[in-house]
Amino acid sequence: MPSPDTTPEEIGEFWDIHSLSDYWDETHEVDFQVNSKLKYYLVPVELEIAEQINAHATEQGISAEKLVNFWLREKLKGMITKK
């Protein structure tokens, strides 16, 4: 099985050619909770804009999702204060 420091890409490649049934004895039961109250809305973005967002996010060391949410909050805050 992949080690804990394996990259997501390496994990994907591993499971592309292996079956969980071969490693079933190495698994264990886990408990986790899912917050089903979180809601996400997908908004189509032009490819060029998405690439620029990803580039800015990478420069700042954050995810594109965090960057877009930050920008939108700032824009909405500005719109509310102008009323």
Helical content class: 40-55%
How much strand content do the residues show? under 5%
Q: Can you give the mean pLDDT?
A: 91
Straight-line distance between termini: 58 Å
**Major sheet characteristics:** none
What structural class results from the helix and strand content? mainly alpha
Separate helix tally: 3
Q: How many domain units?
A: 1
Rg, please? 20 Å
SSE order in H/E notation? HHH
Write down how many β-strands occur, each being a DSSP E stretch of 2 or more residues. Answer: 0
What characteristic shape results from the CA principal axes? elongated
Uncertain spans = none
Describe this structure in words.
The chain is mostly helical and 83 residues long. It has one domain. Helix content is 52%, strand content 0%. It has helices at 8-17, 47-60, 64-82. The chain is elongated, with a radius of gyration of 20 Å.
